Structure formats: C-alpha cells, structure tokens
Amino acid sequence: MVVSKNKVVSVTYELRLDSRDGEIVETVTGSSPLTFLFGTGSLLPKFEDHLTGLKTGDDFDFHLAIEDAYGNVDPNSILDIPIKSFEIDGKVDYELVRIGSTIPMQDGQGHRLNGIVKAIESDTVTMDFNHPLAGKTLYFDVKVLDIK
Fold first, then answer.
1. What angle do CA 128, 132, 134 make, to 5 degrees?
2. What is the pLDDT of residues 2-40, one digit of tens each?
3. What is the C-alpha to C-alpha distance for residues 147 and 140, in angstroms, rounded to an integer?
4. In terms of DSSP bridges, do strands 91-92 and 102-106 run parallel, antiparallel, or are they unpaired?
5. CB within 8 A of 136, min separation 6: which ones?
6. Are residues 22 and 63 in the same domain?
7. Are residues 85 and 119 in the same domain?
8. 105 lies in which domain range?
9. Which residues contact residue 120 at a Cβ distance below 8 angstroms, ignoring those fewer than 6 apart?
10. What total of structural domains would you count in the chain?
11. What is the 3-state secondary structure (H, E, C) of 54-69?
C-alpha cells in the first residue's frame, strides 16, 4: 500500500531549522507517531507532496522553503495590545504575561490564536501572532510507519 488520498498514515520525524545540522525543533517518535488522514489539508501541502506514493518503511528527508512552510513573518501580525486586556480582577499576572510566553487569545471574530509576548511596557504588551516557524526554512527527516 502507498500513501495516497484518504489513507490513514503514521509517520515519525525530526524537524530541524535550515538543514540536517540545524537546531532541532521537534522530534516525533514511534511511541507517539503523527497519524493523520492523508489528502485532507490537515498538514502543510508541500509536506504531503513529499509523502505521496511512499510505502511503509520508507524514510526520506526534504526541505520546505519559507514560502512552502509557514510563510514570511508578517509585521501586521505583531501588535501592541493594551496591558489592561491582560488584567484579571484588576491585576496583570506577570507569571503568565512575560517575554517569551505563548498566550491563547481571541480576535474580534472569536477566532482562537496564540500570541507570543515580545515586549512589555507600562501600558502595552507587544504580541506576535505569526506562526512560531514563520520566516524559517524547515528540514524534515521522516519515516513512514504505517498506512491503512
């Protein structure tokens, strides 16, 4: 059986920045593989393109260019939000609101998004709503474990 539309596929992978020698971002092992329905758009399209036609046991590696991964950093997705938006009972929890923290939020239409705290001023918090891997070239080393 080969990886194709509407097959349940399980893979392991190591994700690095830029190249085989780049910083490790994520490792998915056989004890908890990534299992998904292929061809439904749940993964990056170019990631799926690289899996098409592979068989159980195949391993391979590939790069995803910035535009094929999460795109460039969008400066319009970096916002200054009034610090009062982070108050609970009139106080800001600085254990939660600290530089580098990821905070789940909602936009004006009720869509959930995660923002990373980039800066904290007396009256604003600078939040980056870009995907954490935006602006990065990705390198994957993947093994197909199972196809159903």
1. 95
2. 999 999 999 999 999 999 999 999 999 999 999 999 999
3. 19
4. unpaired
5. 17, 18, 66, 69, 70
6. yes
7. yes
8. 75-128
9. 83, 97, 98, 99, 126
10. 2
11. CECCCEEEEEECHHHC
